[in-house]
Amino acid sequence: MRFEIITIFPAFFAGIFEHGIVRRAQAEGLVGIGLHDLRAYTHDRHRTVDDRPFGGGEGMVLKPEPLAEALESLGILPLHNRVELQVLRSAQDDTRKVGGTRVILLSAQGRPFTQAMARELSQLVRVVLICGRYEGVDERINEIFCDMELSIGDYVLSGGELAAAVVVDTVMRLVPGVLGNEASGEFESFGVADAEISSDEEGVPRSQHGAGGLLDYPHFTRPAVFKGLAAPQVLMNGDHLQIRKWRREQQLRKTLKNRPDLLEGAVLSGEDQRLLETIRRENGD
Prior knowledge:
Largest sheet: 5 strands, parallel
Strand content: 5-15%
CATH superfamily of the largest domain: SPOUT methyltransferase, trefoil knot domain
Order of helices and strands: EHEEEHHEHEHEHEEHH
Radius of gyration: 23 Å
CATH class of the largest domain: Alpha Beta
Shape: elongated
Number of helices: 8
Distance between the termini: 46 Å
Helix content: 25-40%
Structural class: alpha/beta
CATH architecture of the largest domain: 3-Layer(aba) Sandwich
């Protein structure tokens, strides 16, 4: 899989992509990352990439010409009107879902980036990320070239570089072979439901449920007692079924406390629903 990042600050990524899993994935040839300096696609002595917005207002806007040239250098062809855009997107829809290319504008106005979206992007061969700056990007670039706008949260960043790093890290770790243990990408916050996870190996029951859209459960390690606080005894008794039940309860408790909005779309069994009602009663809800 390959990521192409269009930015006015390519040096921003130097340290970010030289550590941990991202570095290892690149070294093993599982993931490639291309950094493209937007100023390299300008043709004036000042290497100008921005201009004042039509209609007035604060700040500057990234000009369309350098961005278009950068995208075309990557083989992303422009469409010249909205009708052509809709027809081409419809025709390419299946190929872009698996094994194709997706062009993404990183923007505070975009759709929220989620783990489910990361799993979808991890099926592609190439993801092109456009890092916005200043007040944003000329909207015609979005209309002509982009498959989607993405936002990593309900806040405004100085530019799309941090967002691009988040998208690369989140998607890359879902590419087969990147994580040392493939199950690590399944059993975590926002992970898939039990039905989408491989069955137990060698007859040993799993000690956790698939998250099914919930937050992860709390984790503990040695020492068993730290500053007077003991790790839960249930985790040390070797009973996989009891551990699994406890962890599911903790997932529900933590999600209800920190992200109750996730419960609406979570995959919950009848037992989950009953347990959730018990927790709510305990909390006086």
